[in-house]
From TrEMBL:
Source species: Croceitalea dokdonensis DOKDO 023
Protein name (database record): BatD protein
Pfam families membership: BatD (PF13584)
TM helices/strands, residue ranges: 454-471
Signal sequence coordinates: 1-24
Organism ancestry: Bacteria, Pseudomonadati, Bacteroidota, Flavobacteriia, Flavobacteriales
Keyword terms of this UniProt record: Membrane, Signal, Transmembrane, Transmembrane helix
Amino acid sequence: MVAINRFNFNFLLPLLLCGSCLLAQDAQEVTFEVKLSKETLGVNERLRVEFAMNKDGDNFNPPDFNGFQVVMGPSQSIASSWINGKRTYSKSYSYILKPKSQGTYTLGQATIEIDGNTYKTLQKKITVTQAVDNPNAPKTADDVADENLHLVAEVSKGNPYLNEAVTVVYKLYISPDISVTNFRPVDSPKYNNFWSQDIPVTKYNTVNSTYQGKAYRSVILKRVVLYPQKSGKLDIEPLSLEIYVDVPTNRRDFFGGRIYTQASKTVSAGSRTLNVKPLPEAGKPEDFGGAVGEFDFSVTTTKTALNASESLQAKVEVSGKGNLKLFQLPEPELPSALEVYEPEFDEKVRTTLSGMQGKVANNYTIVPSYRGKYPIPSISFSYFNPKTQKYVSLNSEEIVVDVMEGPESESNGANVIAGNQKIAVPTGKQFHFIKTNPNLSNRVANHFFGSTKFYGLLFSPLLLIPLIVVYRKKRLKDDQDVEGMRLKKANRLARKYLSTAKKALGNEDQFYVALEKALHNYLKAKIKIETADFSKDKIIGLLQDKKVESATTDQFIALLKNCEMARYSPFTNVQMQQDYDKASEVISKMDKQL
């Protein structure tokens, strides 16, 4: 009985294994695809087209080979093998085609029936170029690298508003057939007419992706955020890289491994053009200063009650997301009885792929001289929101500073509260009792006339006459020295605009941002140039119209270029000090010439 069971088991074992193999074959996913020997060929070359499937089928129908002549085919080949108990099967129909003329052709879909279902191949585009020198020559490593490497500049917005953030990401697409070993930049874009900020790529991560419908690997090589500074069509210069790749050959080593050869290829992202829209004129507030984005605005003080000669801090702050480094903060209008010092600029801004975000503020130190109540009037701040395409105006709250103790003002205890309005400040000394008993007494006569004091007061004005004459001569001489007066005024103006940059000496990023802003603010104040016109060509043209010497103009433009280069190249403390001294000299010269 046992022998019979053993016989039955040995007989059924091959059948079970065969059945499992058939089930595995039936469960295998059916594929039907077209393979081209090349997608671009010369008119004197040949093209091999192969339709391959992994399961046998019937009723194969090739596409119409429009634009080509069938030189050979169809050739049928079948391959079947067993590997580790698993059967693999492939069947293909091959054609050799000859192009009839140059042009771009679309290879249609082939069809076949497998297990009662109809399968179709994808369409393919084939480009036929002019005749090549050696049509039968195999592809070189450079040819393979050229077909399998693509550098693309992906732009977040092609039609932004003036001063709206645009992100450019440079991606390198690499075919799985090759591998990249190294790269170096050949030509970097200058980003003329843009304010630019690089976002460093600290690690090159490769991800699977597709390019033009094919499987590729991609890696981000460079990221930059741009803010267009003028409207119209602006070109983004291309980025060019030299890529070193390993390309497989048809040769193999002793162990059967494929031999690779190294090639270098220069790839370019190509130039891109942005159509920058100007900010709308409809609804533009009078106090609009060029801010574009989404912002909050506030005016705060460290205290609202203090004594005279004590100090308080008033902060004018804008926070949010937008071109935070490219506009001026509004200035408060304070009563004249409050002594106000030059503001300290505070900037906490970081740049991400979506643009600048953070906050900027001016901190004013205020010292009251007299007691009373002093208002800090409401300040207005306006910006353009590109999402809603509308202008927004924000107003701060009015703040009243109460100076409780201190001397009275010279205007009979009255302090300015707003405009010409005045409020009386009671001092407690306005009313006194009148004494009814004067306690008068006789006094001895004082002989003033003829005394030393009398003659001293009589002749002292005569002694002042020579001093007055000397003072008037010196004043007249100074007034005639127009060049000297202009130089003094220009030096004071240079120190005013460069005060923030001087404080940042030693910190490259803060110094050059402050220096660039100082140069821009000087131009705004002197030649009424708007933020939207801050292009080098526009500045040169305006300075030429104002009869500024070409040497001075060149020095001014060179400083602006140094501010831009500081974003990409390190600058030493000596170079920063030289640029600061040069900026002070240039502003002084330009102010005299203007």
